[in-house]
Design goal:
Length: 403
């Protein structure tokens, strides 16, 4: 009996060992060590995406310093596919992508960038095009052959499928296809993917879709319950509290793509949105048409000191350390022992706000230097805390470093 048990144990260990090294040798384990950065077509172009736009984004990434700032992935969302052929191969919409996906991926790669694509766990995507259900291995092989580096995998038309099993199936298919592909799971947080997603995907959506507004929301009936399925960025932010411990290198909470530069968000609101996504260690997937962005929006998206907070190698998600109603203090631990701090003012007033060192894990007698990351200015050193006026619907973002 003892021998039988040890044989079983050995087999399990060998199996586990094999799958771990399979992931490692295929590069899976090294992907997304910091939150992925890039651009995705959905927030601006919806289903009206085409290869001209995608090529233009790749050109612009290089010409306007996006690549240099760390943005890497150019991702086509829903609407590139149209049908399946008699062999079950996914068919590309030739009107929108006349040169085909491989040529487009090659073009993006020729710019030193990476290329991403979208599919769905169900039989149809949210836009009504063929999903990957039943074709997981075939699609994964196709993506690998095209040179895809990133897959966003949606959750429409999935009936009563098990969420973890369905995502695990596609993850296995991607691994089997043998190309390192960042796996972005988009099931809107409905099955709490932060609880099971590590090791399945590299990032998982935590909420329904973002909209380019401060706090709008659209209520719909889902399974007899009223839920908000399209929400502004402050509402998404509120839903991130409590998820902090689930994020880390290779496995990130995804509060959805950026709306910076979209809708009627003001410059201050855009700054707040970007700062807070950086504090959340959120994937930074741009959702605007960067080719027509205002200089103000470009300055926000290309601020390297703010981006460095997001990309900090420690990979800690920021935490709300104080909530005084409209006034909030957020803190994110950085690898060098310093803290990024955001003083977030949701009100329409310009209050004086402060952070105490004890709130961000330092003793009150500590002398620390303070740098204002948006003004790119050293503010000198301070003991015990720091106070500053914060504009309406905006933030002050600081780096606090012990002396
Ligand atoms: C869902 C996703 C969006 C987008 C669309 C595409 O709504 O959450 O991010 O991918 O589908 O149809």
């Amino acid at each position: 009996m003892k021998n039988v048990l040890s044989v079983i144990l050995m087999s399990v260990l060998v199996l586990l060992g094999c799958s771990a090294s399979f992931a490692a040798t295929n590069g899976w384990d090294n992907l997304a060590q910091t939150p992925p950065m890039g651009w995705n077509s959905w927030n601006t172009f919806r289903l009206e995406i085409n290869e001209g736009v995608v090529r233009g984004m790749a050109d612009y990434f290089v010409e306007r310093g996006f690549k240099d700032a760390g943005y890497e992935y150019i991702v086509i969302d829903d609407g590139w596919q149209v049908d399946r052929d008699a062999q079950g191969n996914i068919v590309v919409n030739k009107d929108k992508f006349p040169s085909g996906i491989k040529a487009l991926a090659d073009y993006v790669h020729s710019k030193g960038l990476k290329f991403g694509i979208y599919s769905d766990d169900g039989y149809k995507t949210c836009g009504g095009f063929p999903g990957s259900l039943g074709y997981e291995y075939q699609d994964a092989r196709q993506y690998a052959a095209w040179g895809v580096d990133y897959l966003k995998y949606d959750w429409c038309n999935t009936g009563n499928q098990s969420t973890p099993d369905s995502y695990q199936l596609m993850r296995n298919a991607l691994e089997k296809a043998g190309r390192p592909i960042v796996f972005s799971m988009c099931e809107w947080g409905t099955s709490k993917p932060w609880q099971w997603g590590k090791g399945v995907g590299h990032l998982w959506r935590t909420t329904f879709d973002i909209r380019p507004c401060w706090d709008c929301g659209q209520r719909v009936l889902s399974k007899g319950v009223q839920v908000e399925n399209f929400i502004g960025f402050t509402k998404i932010l509120d839903l991130q509290v409590g998820s902090e411990s689930y994020a880390g290198p290779g496995h990130w909470n995804d509060p959805d793509m950026l709306e910076v530069g979209n809708g009627k968000l003001t410059a201050d609101e855009n700054k707040a949105h970007f700062s807070l996504w950086c504090m959340l260690a959120a994937p930074l997937m741009l959702g605007n048409d960067i080719r027509t962005a205002t200089p103000e929006t470009l300055d926000i998206l290309l601020n390297k000191e703010v981006i460095a907070v997001n990309q900090d190698p420690l990979g800690k998600q920021g935490v709300k350390v104080r909530d005084d109603g409209d006034l909030e203090v957020w803190s994110k631990s950085l690898h060098d022992g310093s803290r990024a701090v955001v003083l977030f003012n949701r009100s329409k007033l310009e209050p004086n706000m402060h952070v105490l060192w004890t709130e961000i894990g330092y003793p009150s007698h500590l002398d620390a230097t303070v740098r204002d990351l948006w003004n790119k200015k050293d503010m000198g050193s301070s003991t015990g805390g720091y106070a500053v006026e914060v504009p309406a619907h905006s933030v002050v973002m600081l780096k606090v470093s012990p002396q």
